[in-house]
Design brief:
alpha/beta; six-stranded mixed beta sheet
Length: 129
């Protein structure tokens, strides 16, 4: 058994399959899940696991070259906005409806137990070399 890193076998396997340019949607419990992408649902109960915890764990495993979030995030969820803008200085902000459209092209969806609005981000994978 792995003793460090991501222990969830479904998530670890899905991350290993990602390539340059692939999209990963990290979302709250209320975000509509698009048909098509592989889904790893980590939600256990409201708030568990938290969006910030899942995002930090994923960023320890992935190279990310860009990120997109809903522009409504700034007003509706300042804590998540600060978190994302801290991790991604060039964070692309779009209307929430547009984020939902873009999410349909993601290769992987990771659903958290977050229960606050707009705690969603679409990551674009980079390469480590």
């Amino acid at each position: 058994m792995k003793k460090t890193g991501i222990l969830n076998r479904h998530l670890a396997g899905a991350l290993a399959e990602l390539g340059h340019g692939d999209g990963v949607l990290v979302c709250d419990a209320g975000m509509p899940i698009p048909d098509g992408p592989r889904v790893v649902d980590l939600a256990f109960r409201a708030g568990v696991p938290a969006f910030a915890e899942v995002l930090d764990g994923l960023l320890a495993e992935l190279v990310v070259e860009g990120a997109t979030a809903a522009q409504e995030l700034r007003e509706a969820n300042p804590e998540a906005s600060s978190l994302l803008e801290g991790h991604f200085p060039g964070l692309d902000l779009v209307a929430h409806e547009r984020l939902k459209e873009l999410s349909a092209g993601a290769r992987l969806v990771v659903r958290t137990g977050e229960a606050r609005p707009y705690a969603n981000v679409l990551l674009r994978c980079g390469v480590f070399f």
